Amino acid sequence: QVHLVESGGGLVQAGGSLRLSCAISERTVRSYNMGWFRHAPGKEREFVALVDWTGDSTYYGDSVKGRFTISRDNAKNSVNLQMNSLKPEDTAVYYCAANTVRSTSSSDYNYWGQGTRVTVSS
């Protein structure tokens, strides 16, 4: 019923930038907290970033802090992830997710997109 669609993934050189977007169904309430997670082969799903329901507070995983920026536009029902200074270890499928509480645990999220693949070459 709640539909999330990621876009913006692709192939980029190390040190480059990429901007991911997540479009949220018009049925989704604007008070949801929105998060980004990523999953790379051989690794567990990893927390990347979170923006709370007000859009005023953000949280980042240690591996991306200082390089990635999350933002939301409630008027457009979207959330974005600006990724700078990309590294090969950032290669993964990136998922956006919606939750009613502030959490960095993927198990606490109710709604997920299908993911967008990011590949960072050396």
Characterization of this structure:
There is one protein chain. With 122 residues, the chain is mostly beta strands. The protein is 0% helix and 48% strand. The protein contains no helices and eleven strands. The strands form two sheets. Strands 2, 4, 5, 6, 9, 10 and 11 form a seven-stranded mixed β-sheet that branches. A four-stranded antiparallel β-sheet has the order 1-3-8-7, with no helix packed on it. The radius of gyration is 13 Å and the shape is globular. The protein starts with a strand and ends with a strand.
Which characteristics define this entry?
122 residues; mainly beta; 4-stranded antiparallel beta sheet; 11 strands; globular
Task: Give me the secondary-structure topology.
Elements: E1 4-7, E2 10-13, E3 18-24, E4 33-39, E5 46-51, E6 58-60, E7 68-73, E8 78-83, E9 92-99, E10 111-112, E11 116-121
Parallel strand pairs: 2-11
Antiparallel strand pairs: 1-3, 3-8, 4-5, 4-9, 5-6, 7-8, 9-10, 9-11
Briefly characterize the structure.
Helices cover 0% and strands 48% of the residues.
Q: Count every helix, treating DSSP H or I runs of 4 or more residues as helices.
A: 0
Structural class: mainly beta
Count of DSSP E strands?
A: 11
- From the spread of the alpha carbons, the general shape counts as globular
Largest sheet: 7 strands, mixed
Span from first to last CA?
40 Å
Could you tell me the strand content as a percent range? over 45%
Helix content: under 10%
Low-confidence stretches: none
The whole-angstrom Rg is 13 Å
| Mean pLDDT score | 92
* Pattern of helices and strands: EEEEEEEEEEE
